[in-house]
Amino acid sequence: MLQALVTRALAGLAVVVGVVTLMFFLIRLAPGDPALLLVGPTATPEQLAAQRKELGLDRPIPEQYTVWLGRFVRGDWGSSIATGRPVRGMISAAWPATVSLVGLSLVLSYIIGIVVGAIQATRGGRLDTTLSVVTVTLFALPGYWLGLMLVMVFTYWARALPAFGAAGFDADFLTGWDRVADRLRHLALPLATLTLIGIGGTARFVRGAMLDVRNAPHVAIARAKGLSPVQVTLRHVLRNALIPVLTLLGLSLPALFSGAVFIEAIFAWPGVGRIMVEAVGARDYPVIMAATAVSATLVVLGNLLAELLTAWADPRLRAQPSVGAA
Amino acid sequence: MRSRSSLWHDPRARFGLAVLVLAILAAIMAPLLAVDPSLQRDIVATRFLPPLTTDLHGAFHLLGTDRFGRDVWSRLVFGARVSLGVGLLAVLLSVVIGMAVGAAAGFWQGRTGLVLLGLTDFALALPRVVLLLLLASLWQPSAALVIVVLGLTGWMTIARLVHGEVRALAARPFVESAVALGVRGPRVLVRHILPNALTPVIVAAALGVGNAIMLEAGLSFLGLGVQPPTPSWGNLIASGRDTLVNAPWVATAPGLALVLVVVAATLLGDAVRDRLDPAGRR
Q1: A49 near B158, Cβ under 8 Å?
Q2: Alpha carbons A176 and A286: distance in angstroms, whole number
Q3: Is the entire prediction scored with pTM above 0.90?
C-alpha cells in the first residue's frame, strides 16, 4: 500500500514537471513578444533588444528553461513582466478568492447532491421523477449562461445582490457583521452558480451508483440479516455507491477550476482564473508559468486524494490483483 | 426485438430522441426555416424588437432581433449547425481515445498500465482552459480547432472510468473462470470485460456530448471559439451579454436551446444505460 502510494506520488511529481515543461515551450512557440508589449510600438529596435536582454529572452529557450526551473524550485518566482509586481504576491493574493469559491461550492454541491441522489434512489416513484427532471436540467445549465440569468434576475430586476467583485467599494470602512454580510452578498451569485451546476451532476451520479449497488447480493444478505432499511442504505448501499462518486470528485477538480475561470470572468471575481486569462493575453511568462505549476500540483494532489479515499472505501482495490499478467 | 421496443417505451428516450432529431433536422434544413442570419435590413427601425413582433418591413420575428436588427431565430437555427456538429465530433474523438487507453491500462496493469495512467494523469493535469487560450492564439480560432482541442482534452474522464471499471471487473469471478477455462489476453478483455464496462462509457459519452456543446459555447463566449459573424450558440449568448438589460431575449433564447439539447442528450443517455444494463433497471 505504502509502496503503491510512493509510486503514485512520484508519478504525480513527474506529471507536474511534464506539464510545466510542455507549457514553458508552448508559450514561447506562441506568437507575441512580452518585451514588445512592454516597450511599446514606437520603440527602436535597439530599445527592444535591450529590453529582451534585460528579461533574459535573448538567450536560447532551453537555457531560459533551466534558469527558470532552478529559480522556481528555490522559491524565486520572479516578477510579472506586465505589471512588475512579484508573482508570488499576485498568486497568494488571488489564491484565497479562488479556493474559497471553488472549495465552498464543491462541499455544498456534494453534500446536497449526495442527499438528493440518495433520496431519489431509495424513495423512487413520483418524487424520483420530479427530482430527476430538476437535476438533469441543473446538469445541463452552462455556468456562464446561468450566471448571466442570475445577474439579470437578482441584480437588474430585483436589485438585491451585487454582480461584481468580491467586496463592495466601501468594504474597508465596514466593520464586524456588516463586513461579513458584504462579503457574503458578493459571494452569493458566483457561489450559487457553481453550486447549482455541481448538484445536478453529483445527484445524478449518486442515484445511478446506488441503483447499481441496490441489487447486489451483499445487500440482499444485509436485508436478510434483519438490518433496518436505514442501516442497509447507509452502510451497504451508500458506502459502495460512493466509490465511483469519489473517483468523480477527483476528476471534477480540474473541470471545476476551468469552470471557475468562466464564472470569475462573469462576476469579476479576483481569483487565479482571472489572473491566468489576463496573463495569457499579455504574454506574461512568469505569471502563466507560476499559475500553471500551482494548478497542476493541485489537480495531481486532488487525484491522489481521490485514489486514497477510493482505496479506503473499497478494500478489494488495495490488493491490486492483476488478471492481465495471468 | 422486445428490448428495442422497451427503449421506445421509455419516455426519456422518446423525449430525448424527439428533441435531438428536431434540432438536427432544423440545423440541416436551416435555409428553409430561417432567413440569412447576417441579414440587417434597416438597423434603426428593426433593432431590439421583442419576440413575436412584425417589423416595419412586414418580416415576422419569432424571437425578436438583436442590436444590429438581425433575426434571433435565424441566428439560433444557423448556430445549431455549428454547435451540434462540433459537440458530436469532439465526443466521438474522445470516446475512441478514452476507451482504448482506459481498457489497456486497466487490463495490463504492469508497466503498460502505469505508463498509460501516467499519460492520463498528465493530460488531466493540463489546465484545459489555459491550453485552449494558448492554442487559440497559436492558430486562428475555428470550429475545426475547437473539435480537435475538445476531443484531445476530453478523453481522460472516459479513460479513467473505463480503467476503474475494467480493473474491478478483472477481479470478478466470471473473469477468473474465463481465464481458468483458457481464454487469454485480449480476448478476455474484448469479449468478457469490455461489454460489461460499456455502461459508464455510454452514459459518459451522452453527458460528454452535452458537455462538449457547452464548452464550445463557453469558448465562443470568451471569444476563442467560433468567430462572429458565424453564429454559434456560445457567441450568441456572448453577444446578448451586453444587452441583458434592454433586450434579455438575445442571450436567453440560445441558452434555452442549449439547455434543451443537453437535457435531451442526457436523458437519451440515461435511457440507453438502463436498457443495456438490465440489472440497474428499475
Answers
A1: no
A2: 38
A3: no
